[in-house]
Write a structure and sequence with these properties.
mainly beta, Neuraminidase, 5-stranded antiparallel β-sheet, globular
């Protein structure tokens, strides 16, 4: 979700269960980005180029946007059953609308939840598929393979992966600016705005004051102050991978993918470690709350005995965490 959501998730009570999966007949095939309005989960499926809704109470999965022809891709706005996407990977919601990082159309899409109507909010929708890094209003702006997206209700924040930048979009106008990083510049420098650098950003979340991003190839979690664009490294260390818990830069990640915050902690899908990690924002303390480092599987159970296979998206509803377990084509719950 967009802003901070308080969670009652207790450290000693982590239990992992499966809510829905392809193996159980659900319309899921390599799900990635995931978000929630508290009643339903919304998931993007880049294999099938669709957006699906999952009822939290029942686990029922329904397709709300994208072609009914399996794996068909394209670029078309309109009603959900008419609209097309091309390998979408990120999703967020403000409770009324869904916002999609339509990764290989290089645009940001909007879905009205009540009607299923799909439109393009930002990016060159008159030439979708054209990459770029231009700031500007709506159709004048351009992106390069955006993956992560989050919202605080007024703005969207986008991990513009191919440009190695963080973009900010005013929802009311579609106006796009670059918050941090320089297009085409790969690195791991902390700094202000364009003096900071990243390497293949993926997931992004916000508490309304800061954004936090998974800097995937740097194996680090970075923090960006929205008001100033100041970038620091919260956890992990560029150039070093691993699975160690610890404080700040002493902790190690391997391909962190997505993250969500409750305002106090950040929860991270550490994709290539097959684990879910927790970072206490105030102290930078990193712990592993679910999964076994280096062990791929699909076992439910107590947190550190459960297994995942390339977990990617993650969200919370104030009580539980929900994870897109990508290689298992499943949605898992951490209670």
């Amino acid at each position: 979700m967009g802003g901070a959501v308080q969670t009652t998730l207790a450290p000693q009570s982590k239990v992992v269960t499966t809510l829905a999966s392809k193996a159980r007949g659900a319309l899921l095939d390599g799900p990635q980005g995931i978000t929630t309005d508290g009643v339903n989960l919304y998931v993007v499926d880049p294999v099938n180029n669709t957006v699906s809704k999952i009822a939290i109470a029942s686990g029922l999965v329904t397709r709300i946007a994208g072609s009914l022809t399996t794996q068909a891709w394209g670029y078309e706005d309109g009603p959900g059953n008419v609209a097309n996407f091309k390998r979408p990977q990120g999703i967020t919601t403000d409770g009324k609308n869904l916002y999609i990082a339509d990764t290989f159309n290089h645009v940001i899409r909007k879905i009205v939840i009540a009607t299923g109507m799909v439109s393009t909010l930002s990016g060159r929708w008159n030439s979708a598929g054209a990459m770029g890094s231009d700031d500007g209003v709506a159709r004048d702006a351009s992106f390069s393979a955006p993956r992560g997206i989050t919202t605080d209700g007024s703005y969207l924040y986008v991990a513009d992966t191919g440009n190695h930048t963080i973009r900010k979009i005013t929802i009311a106008t579609g106006d796009v600016t670059t918050l941090a990083g320089t297009p085409g510049v790969v690195g791991h420098a902390d700094g202000i705005g364009s003096t900071a650098s990243f390497d293949s950003l993926t997931g992004i979340t916000t508490d309304g004051t800061n954004v936090y991003v998974a800097d995937a190839k740097n194996n680090a979690i970075r923090k960006v102050v929205i008001a100033t664009g100041a970038v620091t490294t919260l956890a992990g260390q560029a150039g070093t991978f691993g699975a160690e818990d610890g404080i700040g830069t002493r902790a190690r990640f391997t391909g962190p993918h997505s993250l969500v915050t409750d305002g106090t902690s950040i929860f991270v899908t550490d994709s290539f470690n097959f684990t879910i990690r927790k970072i206490v924002i105030a102290t930078g303390v990193v712990t592993t709350i679910a999964g076994i480092p280096g062990v791929s599987g699909k076992m439910d159970g107590l947190g550190r005995n459960a297994t995942f296979s390339r977990p990617s998206g993650i969200t919370n509803d104030g009580i539980y965490l929900y994870v897109s377990d990508t290689k298992n084509s499943a949605i898992r719950i951490i209670e």
